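Sat 14:20. Reprocessing the chain from the morning session after the first attempt stalled halfway. Input below, unchanged.
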Amino acid sequence: MTDFTLLFGDVWGQKTAAKGVEKMIRRTIRVEKEFGTDIIPYLVQSACHYDCALRIESEEKNINMKSIMGMTILHFAKGCSFDLIADGMDEQRAVHELAGCFE
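Finished this time. Tokens:
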């Protein structure tokens, strides 16, 4: 168990039945375009428009997509892949729309 989990609990694993959330969505994204670091603020701003929790998992990185500091350590090179994970009310719409930025 990580220090974060000890302090804050398993935020990603919690489900709220009252809100109709049954499970999170995970989609593997393959980057089809070459991106520079100038895309990071756009991605963070776009992610913040959704109510669901969004994160990117790549190798051993697990990044909150709504965090500008976390997102700055990522490099989206053409041909690389990562998992886009959404958990919340508008998770399907978020994954569909954000995946379009990369594919």
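The beta strands are 25-30, 53-58, 61-64, 81-87.
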